[in-house]
Amino acid sequence: MREPGRYSVGDGLLLVVNAGGSRSWLARVRDSNGRRRDIGLGRYPEVTLKEARDRAAGHRKIVRDGLDPVVEKRKAKRTTPTFKEAATSAHNERKDGYKNEKHAAQWLSTLRDYAFPAFGALPVDQVTGPMIVTAMKKIWLTKPETARRTLQRIGIVISWATAHGFRDHDAPMQAIRMGLPPQPHGQKGHAAIPYKDAAAFVRELRAAEETNGRNALLFLILTAARSGEARGARWEEIDLDAATWTVPPERIKMAREHVVPLSAPALELVKRLHESRSSEFVFASYTKRQITDAALSKVMREMGSTDTVHGWRSAFRDWGAEETNFPSEVLEKALAHQIPNAVERAYRRGNLLDKRRALMDAWAAYLDQRTVGNVVPLKATAA
Fold this sequence. Notes:
Elements: E1 5-8, E2 13-17, E3 23-30, E4 36-44, H1 49-64, H2 69-77, H3 83-94, H4 101-114, H5 116-119, H6 129-137, H7 144-163, H8 173-178, H9 198-207, H10 212-223, H11 227-231, E5 238-239, E6 244-247, E7 258-261, H12 264-275, H13 293-302, H14 311-323, H15 328-334, H16 342-347, H17 353-368
Antiparallel strand pairs: 1-2, 2-3, 3-4, 5-6, 6-7
Helix pairs in contact: 3-4, 3-7, 4-7, 10-12, 10-13, 15-17
């Protein structure tokens, strides 16, 4: 059988002879839509007649099951990545959407520390719920916030693998959480200074040597802002006449513009710094760039505090809940948090600026242990 052509050997199996004399097997089947599909089965004699018949029979079964044999063959050729490889691919596809390089690095580092040692080398389709539970139990109670974030990222990797055809289904995340012990309620991921100690701390901070780090920390405390937001404040964002600081969406966790009303002490601080400004940043380093998070942490340590910079937001929120009558939505708006309830969120589209200004004035007054107008720190009456 040397003449070039296609020779049937029965049941849709053909031997293809090429002009150069090479031979190979071909299975001819029709899919569920009646379209003819020709599927290569390998070269002869490497693939024997019996092997070719078995492979052709396998493709016919795929058709009977209502699947496309060509698509299934392509799937079979794909190498399933390990969980680590899948995580890296998922991270690379998502990293352009992160707000900063630090967040992007943290996304993969938590998986590297707590997931890869347990099942990083396994094919991603072999990672099971019990494996994930076992890995998470090691840090679920000792590092609760890190554990929650790591579990969320494991779920994203599994979903990525499912979406790309490497798994048949997602991991049962709800069942996995049920397999983990309850985390203590109210446990915070960031050590926060007790709000009752806040005034004493601020008094000592004002008396400390003036540095960009000290000024930035004071501004952060007065505005209840996140570190990155305060450190990245630009003069173009400050309206001295309106006493507002408008943080653009790209620097806000919720990706929405956030207008911060500046209390009298906060406004006084930025006005004084504005007179000697030498950079686009309100709190610039010697290189004229924004100062680092480490600079603020250093100030905290120099003040003898073991609490975190981010913990000041918790102190502000605790003070608002315990010592004032401001509604929770005003407090959450001041922290640039999204209102959890979707229906309530739809009806509260305003920025509550006037109410938040009264709130920030009350917070500044509390830190200075004085009253401002008719707003007093203890059980303030919200407008």
